[in-house]
Amino acid sequence: NQCIASSPLLNGAKVLENGINFRPPEDREEQIDVVLIIGDLVIIGEAKCILHPAEAKQIAMHRKTVIDAVSQVKRKAMSVEKHSAAFRSRLGQLGIELPEVFIVLPVVILNGAIHTGFELNGVPIIDMYMFNVFFRGEFVETALKHANGGIEHINKRILYSDANEAAKNAPSYFRAPPQMEIISKDIRARLLPIPKVSDKDWTGIYLTFDFVPDVEHLRGLFQNFNQK
Asked: What is the three-class DSSP state of 161?
């Protein structure tokens, strides 16, 4: 609500203060954590607050929780799509009017950045920061910190120009957050051999991933800045 209220472009958007229970006719009741409406787009969110994993087993359990959340929110979104008239009626009880035809976007929202920034089985997985950035409508791609401590923005990415464009661009933003591009496109896979140390030992190989930033891309940004 705070992000929407501060947005100069999304004052027509609505978000429920709390989650809702949705019981469609002749179907199971669903508890929906987040309902957000931008134009004809309805975002159905599954919110998860998970402790930050610190070791391999915790990372695996964190990943399982996220995968389960994807299945849960897909089921809830399908229920809303299947029973759209009942869902419109349910929101009407809360004072929110939906258009007769609307688009449903399921998302998983996490409290931390681990296992976020991509989609799984068609469901975007994001953290609160990515979620909030969307409502600001822009983000800084490159900034320069001066010796006196001041920060000057070099490049900004504009996400939309009005509420209609926000509704149209939201699915692509959440499925592949553009602020992740500089990281995701520069990840390199690397195979590392594990040689045996004796005839009775075993050999192996493991896969690791390195982040190799595109230096030429960054150099071009600063050259453009210097020309200004």
From this structure: coil
Distance from C-alpha of 85 to C-alpha of 98, rounded to nearest angstrom = 10
Q: Are 39 and 163 in contact (CB under 8 A)?
A: yes
- In this prediction, residue 224 carries a pLDDT of 55
At residue 205, φ and ψ (nearest 5 deg) are -155, 140
Task: Give the count of beta carbons closer than 10 Å to the beta carbon of residue 59.
Answer: 14
Determine phi and psi for 193, rounding to 5 degrees: -80, 150
Could you give the angle at which helices 128-136 and 163-175 cross, rounded to 10 degrees?
A: 150
DSSP one-letter string for 19-82: -EEE--TTS--EEESEEEEETTEEEEEEEE--PPP-SHHHHHHHHHHHHHHHHHHHHHHHHHHH
120 and 135 in contact (C-beta within 8 Å)? no
Q: Where are the alpha helices (DSSP H) in 83-162?
A: 84-93, 128-136
204 sits in which H/E element: strand 204-211
Helices 56-82 and 84-93 pack at an angle, to 10 degrees, of: 100
pLDDT digits (tens, 9 = 90+) for 98-153: 999 999 999 999 999 999 999 999 999 999 999 888 988 888 877 777 777 777 66
- DSSP tag of 225: H
pLDDT digits (tens, 9 = 90+) for 49-102: 999 999 989 999 999 999 999 999 999 999 999 999 999 999 999 989 999 999
